[in-house]
Amino acid sequence: MEENPSSTPAPAPQTNGTTEPAQASDHIQNHTQYQTSSNSNTAMNQSSTESASAPTTTMPCAMDPNISADEIALYDRQIRLWGVQAQEKIRTANILLIGMKGLGNEVAKNLVLAGVGSLTIIDDGNVTEDDLGAQFFIRQEDVGTNRAQAALPQIQKLNPRVNIKIISLDGLFQNTMVFGAFTLVIATDMSLSDYSTINAACRVQQRPFYAAATHGMYGYVFVDLISHDYVISRDKSNKPTQFGAESATRSILGATTSKGSDGKVTELVTKREIYTPIILANTSPLPDYHLSSRRRKANVTPILSCLRALWEYQSQTSKPMPSHSREDLAFFTTLATTKHKELQLPPETLKAEVLRTFLQNLGSELSPVCAFLGGQLAQDVINVVGGKEQPIQNMLIFDGEETKGLVYALQSEMMLDMANPTPLDTMSTMPLAANGMHMPMMPMPMDMVPTNLPLMPDASLGGVGLQSMPPAMLDGNMQSTQSGINMTSNNTHNLHPGTDTSGIGMQPPA
Fold first, then answer.
1. What strand order describes the sheet that includes 118-122?
2. 0.85 exceeded by the pTM?
3. Which of 82, 333, 355, 427 could make an SS bond with 444 (beta carbons 3.0 to 4.6 A apart)?
4. What is the model's pLDDT at position 71?
5. Which has more pLDDT, 435 or 117?
């Protein structure tokens, strides 16, 4: 049976093997309350137990002179999974994490325990009473203080080897060169406008970008790695590996084989994935696979339509989420129905119960959902930094009501047409929604990257954000349907006469 490359169940986060160092240090033992359950196999757990008693004999430090024997003992279990070379890349990675609410807490915990070199945190908000329900780095006495500052001491205790810094959001986006200092950027719990601003700046600096958020029982992770090469290990097949395009976004670049002492032949295959920025992915159609039959259409989660409706609502009203007023509920219902139709999904799958539950979950955080998505995001970041395993391509939608997490490859046809996976030293460009500038799609030499790209001011993201592209740079489809391109706010909206929201079941306050 042919594997569907665009929609696959999200694997459970491998917390024991990928985000938690071996307990060979007292400071890790003192924080076992932050550890999550393991889904590693029995053999891996047995080897981990052995490594704790005699770590220096299981993984000689001579394999990499840059990693000390103490580090090999500390990270023994995860080195067994992805190798000392990947661990060396992780220990030199400099990660930027924006947002330290419940999801940000989980991401920070997992990355610090994995042993990244440096973690820079941005969150200008203050701790509230609501934060205490989903964040484990803060305490009651932290209410009213800065969220990042309150979490810093507890994060540092998890792994003193990691360099943890805090910077302010103000002025960060005035110069896109700032993002070039980081290996990778993660933004959480923000609006589509803010995501697009950061994503565009990351593309200018050729830096991978992640966007993620949770809404009660629901959540998502979006990934834009621009162009990413990685290696997978698999048993050698009798059928020769075919180089070239494997799917619309993935191509095979090369393969090598090795024979183990047991006679088993292993093949290391190098692949490349091409990505789409979030501003275009938000209006991209579903892959043909999901539209090939009514049954497959029915299996697409309606939460994708609700999420797109939420982003459209934020864009048109400049409000973070709908209120319980009849007007807001009617407007959101209209938006969700429109987005569902644009995705060519059957109308019966967007039920009133789905809309009601989604709206009721907006603005809330649940620890189990944050733990799942935070573990999944951190695991993907580790794989990307280490150059191992296939990354998320490109939108993971989690539905806690159905206990499903599916990945949808939302790709712009324009990006795929422009993609050329062979040369690495050539530059292709696409329109950038900032001052009419172009942003690179494929990797290019750093001396070719523009160093003074200003971003147009607006009311979001500390006074810096994206404005709409010049009309000449947009084709007809973008102007009419890709509402995510136009980031300017429209504070007025027209409801279709007679719009009925009674099915939502949420009444406005008296």
1. 163-166, 118-122, 94-98, 184-188, 209-215, 218-224, 395-399, 404-408
2. no
3. 427
4. 78
5. 117
